[in-house]
Amino acid sequence: MLREQILFENFYQAVRSLESACKRVGRNPQEITLLAVTKYALDKDVLTLLQKGVLTDIGESRVQQAWARWKENADFAKFTQVKKHFIGHLQKNKIAKAAQLFDAVDSLDDFETARLLSKYLPAGKILTVLVQVKLTERETQSGLPLTQARALVKQLQGTFENIRVQGYMAVAPQGADEKTLRGLFKTLKQAFDEDFKQVPKAQLSLGMSEDFSVAVEEGSTLPRLGSLLFSRNLEEV
Ligand SMILES: *Cc1c(COP(=O)(O)O)cnc(C)c1O
What we know:
Layout: H1 3-25, E1 35-37, H2 43-51, E2 57-60, H3 63-70, H4 74-77, E3 83-86, H5 95-101, E4 104-108, H6 111-120, E5 127-134, H7 146-156, E6 163-171, H8 178-195, E7 203-205, H9 212-217, E8 224-225, H10 227-230
Parallel strand pairs: 1-2, 1-8, 2-3, 3-4, 4-5, 5-6, 6-7
C-alpha cells in the first residue's frame, strides 16, 4: 500500500474504534473530538491528512516544532480552521510564543503560566485551557494531584477575561491494568461532571493510542492519538 493509503486507513480505523467504544456504552460519537497528536509525525504525513480535510484538532508538545510548522511553513499555515492544542510541558520562556500560536493549552498545571498566557495573548484572542491532572504518585508524571487541580480550576474560573477553563486532561500511568485504569478515569470523570456542569463545551481529555477505547467508554470527549495514526504500519514505507 502507498503511504497515503496507510495514513487514511489508520485514521478511519481509529474513527471506527471510537464509534464502537461509543456504541458499547450508549454514547453519541458526535460528543467526541479526535485530537491528532503530531509531535512525532513527519510533516508530509500530517499534511496528507490535513489536505484530506479529516483533521479538526491537532496536538503538539513542542513549541518550537509547532511554530516552525504553523507559523513558518505556508503549507501548514493555510489550514487556519484547524484547532491547535498544546499538550506538553510549557516552559516559561516559551509562553509568549505559545500564546500567539495555540488555540488551546490542554496541559496547564500552574496559575503563573495562566497569568503569563493571559498577558501575552493577542488582543481579542480567547484561549481555552484544560488543567492537567496527575493520576499517579510517580514523580515523572506532569500535572497536579486531583485536589490541587480542582483548586486551580476554581482559582482560574472568571479570573482572566481571555482564558476559559474548559475541563481536565490526564495521561494514564504506564502499564496500568484495565481495572486500575477504569477506576482512575471514573474518579476524574466524576470530578469533571461536578466542576464543569455549568460550562458549555466542557472537555475531558483522556486516552491515547493504547487506552483510548477504555477512555471513551469512561467518558473522554477528547482522546489524543499519535502513534496509532502516524506510526502504525508506516515504518517500512
Ligand atoms: C505523545 C502524547 C500523546 C499521544 O500518544 P500516543 O501513545 O502516541 O497516541 C497523547 N497525549 C500526550 C500528552 C502526549 O504527550
